[in-house]
Design brief:
By secondary structure, the chain is of the alpha+beta class. About 25% of the residues lie in helices and about 30% in strands. The chain has a 5-stranded antiparallel sheet with strand order 1-5-4-3-2, covered by helices on one side. The radius of gyration is 17 Å and the shape is globular.
């Protein structure tokens, strides 16, 4: 089975969804449309390392929610996993990840797995871009 993991909206503290044209996950309408509000939603609280604007990781209490996602154009089952701290830290933009996966999510461990995978993916991308900017001087090159 091929596992897929797609961010519906990943809003880490270093950036937001609006930059990529994705819907902001703060809208209740978005959640109602995708089924993350209602009795079928599973909710848990857990501590996760969340980075601040300076790159320091802090253990923060987060709400982890998931629900089965029914898309009429896709016949296969999808699950939506949402991770967000319940309250924002002063002087920091909020962190929220909404992930769509084809891996069945029925327990807390199942819900944490896609978040862990996306966390590693996000850090790898950040490290790659940092290397391009500092090591390769990509921003200082003239491509004209």
């Amino acid at each position: 089975m091929c596992h897929s993991l797609v961010p519906l909206c990943a809003q880490p503290s270093s950036g937001g969804c609006g930059d990529r044209g994705l819907p902001a996950p703060t809208s209740r309408h978005v959640y109602e449309c995708i089924g993350l509000v209602g009795p079928a939603t599973r909710r848990h609280q857990l501590y996760r390392p969340i980075g601040d604007s300076k790159g320091q990781l802090h253990q923060r209490l987060c709400a982890l929610k998931w629900a089965n996602l029914e898309l009429h154009q896709i016949e296969k089952a999808r699950w939506l996993v949402d991770l967000a701290p319940p309250d924002a830290v002063a002087d920091e933009s909020p962190t929220r990840w909404c992930l769509v996966t084809n891996v069945r999510v029925s327990t807390l461990a199942d819900g944490v797995e896609p978040v862990d995978i996306y966390t590693h993916r996000w850090r790898t991308c950040e490290d790659f871009h940092k290397c391009l900017k500092t090591g390769c001087g990509i921003e200082s090159r003239d491509f004209d």
